[in-house]
Amino acid sequence: MSFASNCLVAQSGGPTSAINSSLSGVIEAALNNPKINTVYGAVNGIKGVLNEEVLNLNDIFSDSENIRTLRTTPSMFLGSCRYKLPTVEANENEYKIIFDFFKKYSIKYFFYIGGNDSMDTVAKLNKYAIDNSYEMQIIGIPKTIDNDLVHTDHTPGFGSAAKFVATSVLEMTHDTFCYNIPSVVIVEIMGRNAGWLTAAAALARNEYSDAPDLIYLPEIPFCTEKFIQDIKNVQKTKKNVVVAVSEGIRDEEGNYISATTAPNDSFGHAQLSGTGKSLESLIKSHMDCKIRSVELNILQRSASHISSLTDITEAALVGQKAVEVATNGVSGKMIAMKRINNAPYEVEFVTVDVSEVANKEKAIPREWINEEGNHVNQQLIDYMKPLIQGEVDITFKNGLPNYLPITHLTKRNQ
């Protein structure tokens, strides 16, 4: 069965500062591609397909200024979901609903922007299309601030989040050093199993400050006794200690250090909270000094006011590349980035089998973490530094960033 040439795009998983840039790349390329008639957007990911919640993006983005504004708008214009598409064996009816939707709207190209769980959806839909002779192209577009997708040098969204983390740590360092009293500041940063984003705190170091003095990542088992001793060792030479910790740090038995762990999400992932507060209490029981913990939480996901131009630019190019390969007959692939040079920084865009990406995670190489397991090595800093370069030109209105309205999402809460 062959469909006419309309396309559908959707977003899934956690928000970033760059995922709308990838969406803008898809929309811009699709509107200018003679093989595509109408560009549709599913609201709230694959759930929007199942519920037939759809927007005609041709109407919204006929004005090219809206595309430019979308590129620097945070979070997810189309909304998101965290939904694990069941296997065909478990629930084939959902696949029939999805492909009936594709048929109804004459969808030949489907683009799904998300992380490794979203790539699982792409892989399942692509296999179902092949097994049932649906002639369509299904492409995965990567995003995640966690930077944990395999087979790509890095992911859109990471560079901007890393820039926000490093900037926040730098600013907190200035705040900490204004007092001439012993203190410890603990900064809790997102990262369940991979510490890429927490490692980005190291980019805050400069010619006048070594902060963060200590960095703890989930790749290394966490020892509370060593943690206290590490802080005491730093305070032998400086009064103010800044510590960056991943929310997902665990002890040698694999138990999370977080004070509270909520029920798992729909993908089976632990919902972590309270790592910084837990460590704050631990230090207070062993040391007599001023102690604060700061949880960056969702702030690091959509801080478009401090996004990376490199990240935003690459995200749009990834979206454009997805349209290019799909309209050339490619399916079941994810767009990936391959680093060609570090100085000067250069990448090329390639495709990888989405089945090789789905449900897998990329950890930081052990050799990029120092021997003590409490900081990162220069190789990791050299890897991250190009990804935070450049500032995005954001327009302002009434003193605040001017983002594209999301009335179709906000009106549901009224």
Automatic annotation (TrEMBL):
GO terms for biological process: fructose 6-phosphate metabolic process. GO terms for cellular component: cytoplasm. The record marks D117 as: Important for catalytic activity and substrate specificity. Diphosphate binds at G14. It is found in: Cytoplasm. Mg(2+) binds at N116. Its cofactor is Mg(2+). Substrate binds at T144, I145, D146, M190, G191, R192, E247. One of its GO terms (molecular function) is 6-phosphofructokinase activity. The active site is at D146. InterPro entries: ATP_PFK, PFKA, Phosphofructokinase_dom, PKF_sf, PPi-PFK. Homodimer. Catalyzes the phosphorylation of D-fructose 6-phosphate, the first committing step of glycolysis. Uses inorganic phosphate (PPi) as phosphoryl donor instead of ATP like common ATP-dependent phosphofructokinases (ATP-PFKs), which renders the reaction reversible, and can thus function both in glycolysis and gluconeogenesis. Consistently, PPi-PFK can replace the enzymes of both the forward (ATP-PFK) and reverse (fructose-bisphosphatase (FBPase)) reactions. This is Pyrophosphate--fructose 6-phosphate 1-phosphotransferase.
